[in-house]
């Protein structure tokens, strides 16, 4: 609040930011302390795109992890970040920490539906491509 602009009248609101903050400060509440949270961890929110934000970068979790309000425990260990289900304690993901901000750190396994096996998916692709010779060649390459 010490910056020069906070003492000036704001062009849109026609109010002085420092004065507005002084009024709002009366209504601020402290952040609740989480009882079951380990000391060396944080709580994160799973976003709709199955990512969490940690130190200004996005880290993926497996497809289908998102549910409204779902929270995870974020635990930094050496050069990695562990993402743990808050209720079950299950390790959902582990990523190398990114030193750059604003990056997406993704695990390729997080983007596919793992309930279907690769063989089944390959068969579905062959059927979709009408089992042409080209489709059979593609399926043998992998």
Record keyword descriptors for this entry:
single chain, alpha+beta, 142 residues, three-stranded mixed sheet, 3 helices, four-stranded antiparallel sheet
The ordered H/E elements are: HEEEEEEEHH
- Output the number of helix runs: 3
Mean residue pLDDT: 81
Taking pLDDT < 50 over at least 5 consecutive residues as the criterion, the unreliable ranges are none
> Beta fraction of the residues?
15-25%
Query: What is the C-alpha radius of gyration, as a whole number of Å?
Result: 24 Å
Tell me the total number of β-strands: 7
End-to-end separation: 59 Å
Helicity range: 10-25%
Rough outline: elongated
Largest sheet, in brief, is: 4 strands, antiparallel
Q: Major sheet: order of its strands? A: 1-4-5-6
Structural class: alpha+beta
Word description of this protein:
This protein is of the alpha+beta class. Among the domains are: 41-111, no CATH class; 115-142, no CATH class. It is 20% helix and 24% strand. A hairpin with a 2-residue loop joins strand 4 (71-77) and strand 5 (80-85). The longest helix has 11 residues, at 118-128. The radius of gyration is 24 Å and the shape is elongated. The mean pLDDT is 81.
């Amino acid at each position: 609040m010490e910056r020069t602009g906070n003492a000036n009248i704001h062009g849109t609101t026609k109010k002085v930011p420092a004065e507005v903050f002084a009024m709002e400060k009366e209504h601020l509440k402290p952040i609740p302390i989480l009882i079951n949270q380990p000391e060396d961890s944080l709580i994160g929110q799973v976003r709709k795109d199955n990512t969490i934000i940690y130190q200004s970068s996005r880290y993926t979790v497996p497809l289908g992890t998102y549910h409204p309000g779902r929270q995870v425990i974020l635990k930094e260990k050496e050069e990695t970040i562990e993402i743990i289900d808050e209720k079950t304690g299950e390790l959902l993901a582990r990523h190398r920490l990114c030193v750059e901000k604003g990056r997406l750190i993704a695990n390729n396994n997080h983007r596919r539906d793992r309930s279907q096996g690769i063989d089944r998916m390959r068969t579905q692709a062959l059927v979709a491509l009408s089992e042409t010779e080209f489709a059979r060649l593609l399926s043998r390459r992998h």
